[in-house]
Amino acid sequence: MTREEKAVIIDELSEKFKAIPYFYIVDATGMTVGETNNLRRKCFTQGVEYRVFKNTLIAKALETLDTDYTPFNDTVLKGFSGIMFHPESGKAAAKLIKEFRKESGNDKLKLKGASVEYSLFIGADQLDTLLTLKSKQELIGEIIGLLQSPAKNVVSALQSSGGKLAGILKTLSEREG
Predict the structure, then answer these.
(1) Radius of gyration of the chain (CA)
(2) Which of 6, 62, 123, 136 is deepest in the core (most CB within 10 A)?
(3) Integer angstrom CA distances of residue 48 from 65, 79, 82, 125, 162
(4) Which spans are transmembrane here (predicted)?
(5) Average pLDDT of the segment spanning 45-70
(6) CA atoms of 129 and 119, how far apart (whole Å)
C-alpha cells in the first residue's frame, strides 16, 4: 500500500470518527470464514458498519481528533482490529456482539475498546456496562419526566382538593337550607 493510499484511508477513517460518536474496536481472531460472513451479514441487517483496518492507520486517524485516544494505543490497538460503527446508537454494536456470541456459541468475537460520545471503554469486561448505558435522549427524557412529576402532583392535588371543597360547600349549604 502506498503512502497516498494510506493517507486516503486515514482521512476517510478520521472523518468517520468525527461524524459518528459511537465506535467499537473488536478482535475476531480465530473466526472461520463462515463465522466472519455471518458477522458481516448480521452487521448489515442491524445497520452496523464493520470494517477491518491496520492498527497504525487507526492510531493515526485517532490522533487527528480532539479527544485523547492515547489509552487505546497500549492495549486496544494490538493484534487484529475491526471497527464497528453505528450512526445513531451507542448500544447497537454492543447488542450485536452479545447476540453474535450467544448465537455462535463461542467467544471468538471480543470487545477490545469502545468510544461512546467520546467516553472510552477499554477491555472485554466493559461489554455489559455498554449494554446498560443510556443514550443522551433517554437521559433527557428521564430528566423531563422527573421535572414534570412534581408539577403534575401539585395540579392533581389542587384539582382533587377543589372537588372536595366544592362538595363540602354544597353539603353545608344544603344543611342551612
Answers:
(1) 26
(2) 62
(3) 22, 22, 12, 21, 55
(4) none
(5) 89
(6) 12
pLDDT greater than 80 at residue 39: yes
Q: Which set of grid coordinates corresponds to residue 88? A: 445513531
Give the pLDDT mean for 30-38: 90
103-120 confidence digits (pLDDT tens): 888 888 898 999 888 788
Nearest residue to 105 (alpha-carbon basis) of 49, 38, 48, 50: 38
Report how far residue 35's alpha carbon sits from residue 175's, in angstroms, rounded to the nearest whole number. Answer: 84
Q: How far apart are CA 154 and CA 129, in angstroms?
A: 37
Cell of 4: 497516498
The predicted structure's pLDDT at residue 26: 92
- Helices 55-63 and 3-19 pack at an angle, to 10 degrees, of 60
pTM: 0.74
H or E stretch including 49?
A: strand 49-52
Query: Which residues, including other chains, have CB under 8 Å from residue 89's CB and lie 6 or more apart?
Result: 22, 135
